[in-house]
Specification:
Keywords: S-adenosyl-L-methionine, Transferase, tRNA processing. By secondary structure, the protein is of the alpha/beta class. Helices cover 37% and strands 12% of the residues. The relative contact order is 0.16.
């Protein structure tokens, strides 16, 4: 896990990489690469190297990333990004019998949105989303809403659906739970979602002057999906 012995997460990782047929391509925003408490390294440690490939960057052209371009044109490739055009992953998994490739964008919500819309390659795969009411267990980092999941959590849920194996989710989430537990024991505070803070009058940061951002906060408070 590459962490100090005192907070080593290796005992919480699977002894052997999980056997999965789905291959993940993690498109990581450069800002995530330098974060100390990122979840992608834990995800990669749970899977075989050929089933979890990480590409770091903001812009992905066909010239610079020919392998990714081929993957995006493959009819069995899915991209996990919620929206009106996205199909629920459960429906796709029922119809799919062949091994799939799934692209997941790793970054804040604004970073992920920028990567998704400004790279034409990511408009090619079938867009899917998770239909789940699971609350994030990544409690040491603030999320927009209670049901916004970390990259590791998204991958765990998605792989469980694609592989039709409920134990995958439990196995992948185990190191994340241990990470959060260690951090809380060493002085970290539980981070409630922005949605929770706004609804309970606990949001202590200055309200944005930007009308669009203010509108997004109003939607959070009123339980409107954004």
């Amino acid at each position: 896990c590459s962490r100090p012995q005192k907070v080593c997460l290796c005992p919480f990782l699977p002894i052997h990489p999980l056997k999965v047929s789905t291959c993940l391509y993690i498109i990581q925003h450069p800002a995530e690469e330098s974060r100390v408490l990122r979840t992608v390294p834990l995800l990669a440690a749970c899977l075989p190297p050929d089933k979890c490939k990480i590409l770091v960057g903001r812009r992905f052209s066909e010239d610079r990333y020919p392998e990714l371009a081929t993957v995006c044109r493959n009819p069995n490739t899915l991209i996990l990004y919620p929206g009106a055009a996205a199909t629920n992953l459960e429906e796709v998994a029922v119809m799919s019998s062949s091994p799939s490739v799934m692209i997941i964008i790793d970054g804040t919500w604004s970073q992920a949105k920028d990567i998704f819309y400004k790279n034409s390659l990511f408009q090619l795969p079938k867009q899917v989303q998770l239909k789940t009411n699971i609350s994030s267990q990544y409690v040491i980092r603030t999320q927009p809403t209670n049901t916004c999941l970390s990259t590791l959590e998204c991958a765990a849920v998605a792989l469980t659906i694609m592989e039709k194996n409920k134990s995958i989710q439990e196995t992948i989430l185990r190191p994340l739970q241990a990470l959060c537990s260690f951090q809380l024991q060493h002085g970290a505070q539980i981070h409630h979602s922005k949605e929770h803070l706004l609804k309970n009058g606990l949001y202590d940061k200055p309200m944005p002057k930007n009308k669009r951002k203010l509108r997004r906060m109003e939607l959070l408070v009123n339980n409107v999906k954004i």
